[in-house]
Fold this protein.
Amino acid sequence: MSQRATLAALFISTYRDRPLLQSPYRFVDAIIELDRLVSLWRYRHTMMVSRMIGMRVGTGGSSGHDYLMQTTIRQRVFDDLTSLSSYLVPTQHTPPLPEAIESRLQFVNERPGT
């Protein structure tokens, strides 16, 4: 991801309790869960291959089990998003938002003319 996209995702994750950021946070969290499930599928596929062909050469000429295990470890689809938690600080140490930004992140039920 670009630096701007990474910063946006980090902002969403840090201030996810604000009303307008809850839906974007759920979306980011769903993408991270999808990445976890794909990795889990790859791992299970690797274990099945290990049971079926052992340590023999794979069908595509790869090293079989070893190759699949390495791709399971190295090839995360959304690695940038899954590593966001490395940058998060505890809630009690999260800096307060400026008032102008804080007010824009709230739902407002004002009627025109009031």
Notes: The radius of gyration is 21 Å. Residues 3-104 form one domain. The mean pLDDT is 81.
